[in-house]
Design brief:
CATH topology of the domain at 4-74 and 100-175 and 273-353: FAD/NAD(P)-binding domain
Bound molecules: flavin-adenine dinucleotide
Number of strands: 18
Radius of gyration: 21 Å
Shape: globular
Number of helices: 13
CATH class of the domain at 4-74 and 100-175 and 273-353: Alpha Beta
Structural class: alpha/beta
Length: 406
């Protein structure tokens, strides 16, 4: 059994590296694999929510991240018609009252280094192409610089983000899920300091939004995400790149980007948000983060879910090893734990997406919330998931939005 790892983790993003850290801390023999050599870029908005920051703090990395990141206490929302509201990020118990922006090139490398310092091993570039069942182990097959490689493990964590090829090959997904299409680019040299992260519904198709996330006083991450779905898809732009080009030509963006220059290419990448219908386990395998569809269907944030589910998967594997029970029944307990924590939210967000990201509703909500501080706080608490959305969006709240002082 010497050549068998306790756990092989495929994908060294936040989900995979968090799981590697927690498993290695408990003395398990852990191998992380990634198809890229690190540091590597990952197309993202680079925003860390208070939930993400809480896990990173628990892992002992927050202080390092505060040194390299840019924190902001406010988020500004702009409706399609140009109404706006600036809302502070509410502080709650152990959760921070701010967002932190750290380029993924830096963030993912810091988390990976931390996992390695905790004892995990790392091999890259290794592209995993299949996972099959062997005798008393899983066999992970892949390629390393055109050479076939193979590893054995008692358990495998799949944390490959939105790359669905492996999941389709293993029949874990029967067909590609519907994904949000996104694109982003970095700009440096902006003239005016932005005091708030911007979420903009002006200049992007619905459902969707654009963002301007400051990474320093003079640089920003600008991006768009939208759904090309249903009947409306017929008259929607075909690519995120087209939406991005239109977005940065809007007068608001032109003003922000006056004097600034783009750094690096415009990069597109899809987002999986189908957790409510997605598998999360198979024989000797647990899925973590975006591989389990864990990205918020309304906000598009997924680093927090990746970190949280990485930790949950690690905790569950430790329990399974202690009980010497790797049965499918015991694997399904991980699915139950994820469903208990996230299923209601994802079902609600799936429904809300088409209602909430609609110009008429957005104009009304943003205009109304701007004049009512209690609503402002409540909506922010729901958005950053400090508050249960079902409880927050009560008939009384909705009537305040509709009849509000707008
Ligand atoms: C444009 C855009 C903006 C976003 N903005 C935000 C944001 O601001 N805040 C936020 O919280 N979330 C954001 N997200 C979502 C967030 O990026 C993801 O949810 C998050 O990265 C998921 O983490 P993960 O660990 O599950 O996967 P990933 O971070 O995607 O990591 C997966 C890793 O697996 C590796 N891999 C993939 N396939 C293989 C293979 N076959 N073999 C070996 N390795 C493999 C990849 O190289 C990668 O390193 C955004 C996403 C996009 C596309």
């Amino acid at each position: 059994m010497k050549d068998i790892y306790d756990v092989v983790i495929v994908g060294a993003g936040p989900g995979g590296s968090a799981a590697a850290h927690y498993l290695s801390l408990r003395g398990l023999n852990v191998l992380l694999l990634d198809k890229f050599t690190f540091p590597r870029d990952k197309t993202c908005g680079d925003a860390l929510t208070p939930r993400a920051l809480r896990v990173l703090d628990e892992m002992g990395i927050l202080d390092d991240l505060l040194k390299v990141g840019h924190s902001l206490n406010n988020v500004a929302f702009f409706s399609p018609k140009g109404y706006s509201v600036v809302a502070p990020v509410p502080k709650k118990e152990s959760r921070s009252g701010y967002l932190l922006f750290v380029p993924r090139l830096i963030l993912d490398n810091i988390i990976l280094d931390h996992a390695l310092a905790s004892g995990a091993q790392f091999q890259s570039p290794v592209r995993v192409t299949d996972i099959v069942q062997g005798e008393d182990c899983a066999i992970i097959r892949g390629e390393r610089q055109n050479q076939a490689v193979e590893y054995k493990a008692r358990m495998v964590i799949v944390a490959i983000g939105a790359n669905i090829k492996l999941l389709l090959r293993m029949s874990l997904l029967k067909k590609p899920p519907q994904m949000m299409l996104c694109a982003r680019a970095y700009f440096e040299g902006i003239a005016d300091v932005l005091e708030a992260a911007q979420c903009r519904f002006d200049g992007v198709p619905s459902p969707g939004y654009g963002w301007v996330f400051p990474l320093s006083h003079s640089s920003v991450n600008v991006g768009v995400g939208f759904f090309r779905a249903g009947l409306a898809a017929r008259w929607m732009p075909k690519t995120a790149r087209t939406v991005f080009d239109t977005f940065i030509q809007t007068p608001s963006l032109q003003k922000i980007l006056t004097g600034a220059h783009q750094v690096g290419p415009i990069k597109g990448y899809p987002l999986r948000m189908d957790f409510a219908r997605s598998p999360t386990f198979a024989e000797r395998i647990l899925l973590v983060g975006e591989s389990a569809g864990l990205v918020n269907p309304v906000t598009g944030e997924g680093i927090d879910y990746a970190l949280e589910s990485g930790k949950m998967a690690a905790d569950h594997i430790i329990r399974m090893f202690s009980a010497n029970d790797l049965s499918i029944k015991n694997l399904s307990v991980y699915d139950q734990l994820l469903r208990e924590r996230y299923q209601r939210l994802f079902v609600l967000c799936d429904r809300l997406r088409f209602l909430y990201l609609n110009p008429l509703v957005l104009n009304r909500v943003i205009r109304s919330v701007a004049h009512q501080d209690d609503l402002k706080e409540m909506f922010m608490n729901i958005i950053i998931e400090n508050e249960d959305a079902y409880e927050g969006l009560s008939p009384r709240t909705l009537s305040k939005v509709v009849l509000g002082k707008a």
